[in-house]
Write the structure tokens for this entry.
Amino acid sequence: MSFFAVDGLTMRFGGLTALDDVSFEVDRGMIFSIIGPNGSGKSTAFNCISGIYQPTAGKIYFEGEGISGLAPHHIARLGIARTFQNIELFSTETTIDNLMLGRHQHMHSGVWSGVAMLGRATSAAREETENRERVQWIIELLDLVRVRDRPVGELPYGTQKRVELARALAMEPKLLLVDEPSAGMNADERAEVAVRMRELRAELDVTILLIEHHVQLAIGLADRVLALNFGKPIAQGAPEEIRQHPEVIKAYLGDG
Amino acid sequence: MIEPTRDHYQDIRLFTARGSWIKLILLLVVLVSLPLLLPGYRVFTLNYMAVFVIVGLGMNVLVGYTGQVSLGHAGFLAIGAYTMVLLMTRLAVPFPLALVMAGFVSAFFGFLLGLPALRLAGPYLAIATLGFGLAVTQIIAHSALFGGHMGLVVPDATVGPFPLSGDVSKYYVIVGITFVLALGVRNLSVTRVGRAFRAISDSEIAAATMGVDVAYYKTLSFAVSAALTGVAGGLLALMTGFISPGVFTFTLSLMFLAMVVFGGLGSITGAVLGSIVMGYLNLEMDAFQELPVLGPALEGFSERFMSTVGLPNFGWVVTGMLIVFTILIEPRGLYGLWIRALDTTKRSKSTDADLSRSGPGAD
Ligand SMILES: Nc1ncnc2c1ncn2[C@@H]1O[C@H](COP(=O)(O)OP(=O)(O)O)[C@@H](O)[C@H]1O
Ligand SMILES: [Mg+2]
């Protein structure tokens, strides 16, 4: 059984079929890219995987277990983290507090131990301190040191995208779903995103499922690519195959 | 950019700045000496304000952090008050234990109310909680166990060997508890559970994808908020010596919601400030009368133009206007005004690079 698999995934919204019988498998350690023009169902696939949408049909397997139908917080606890195309940060909280939320499932303090935090030796304080230390390297890796204690709502768009990625990494996920990391960025910033993704894959034991509107970036990073159009899988394979695939070229005519 | 190794505990410690200890000691000195400096009847007012502060802390957890709305917190106040009094009269439970039980019983009802609240949001939740508050008073008013409309007399309370007879001794108990609970809520807000609460109000979807069980934390938030309000109810009974359904009105629930919005949502300082002001106004609305020239003038105005009830009515108008103007000037309420005032004084005092005041510890 593969590390992660989607089998016959279908999602309908009323009369609209956003995903139509989509299947793919992802091996551990891969970067797997999903490409497709706007509205082709990429984000919908992520929403199904992370439990926000209940698929109309089809199954999703993670490490051999069926996960479709589970609530989002259960799926998160299994080790699947994600970012959102339209940033979903806790905007009134600081960068560090956003990351600490990512630590939620690895921490245990409840109401009582939280209330009774009376000095650094108490359990809640120790847990807080340890976990803050633990995410410090992520803050450094993603160049967030200077904005560590700033409310993220005030940060520039690109920085918010990094905070969101950092928060997902703070969860120490096995599978990371990244939705459009380079959206709204210029060529330089896009190159930076590419470097960062490779870095993550090299340094962490994490499998990455990447949605990217920018085809060159998506294909350049990927070990394997799935192309969608109007919710239908039109091609799947190694990056070189996809680059030359007639259906893909057709779908992207005029799209760069 | 490499940082020197940082002490991560400083993020969450209570006293971040060097002067904080001094401020705390000053505050304690003021709190301890206040009842000795003020005329006796004012101590009753202080006690009432402290009870409001505890409710404000509870409302802040539910409304300010978790982003849920409640128009029924007078119901929890009643549950706390009646639980404590019945335990003391019927089962001879000592006051401290009865007060703790008041918190637990109220928390249980908060949990129950939190369950339907999971499916409701915004105006629907407001109506559900409103119904809860009304139902509690109705049930109390029509049941012999609770003394019906006539109410119940609160038995004399003792803490260990010490009788709580006068307002001053009650003051030290009530304000002491208020102080401890405020610290507790502050600690809660900077640790895991508080963070989960706040995440829910910012983005439920994001919270869930971080592993936060949104349903669980919403009900937990109701329970914590109700527990605090239940304790406040017990203390209200202690200080007034008498409880009846007429105390726990819908208007009171409205006040509770208004005071945390007025104080500044999501901030403990704001909740405390808002509750102090609202508690004072709620009890002393007709104190306008005592003002030298203004009092009679207002009274005349009110009687001529407003209603036959006169001045109490005017008190409501003043309260309402105060809330409206504060929110218009500063949406973050009193807390926002406070922060602005601090910023201004800081800026005029120094041009230090270190102006960073935010961070949870400062709140
Ligand atoms: N919650 C929803 N309700 C109705 N339609 C939706 C919903 N989510 C997505 N869709 C529709 O599904 C299609 C695919 O959207 P999406 O997955 O966001 O595309 P992509 O991420 O590939 O740009 C679009 O036509 C979109 O309007
Ligand atoms: Mg999308």
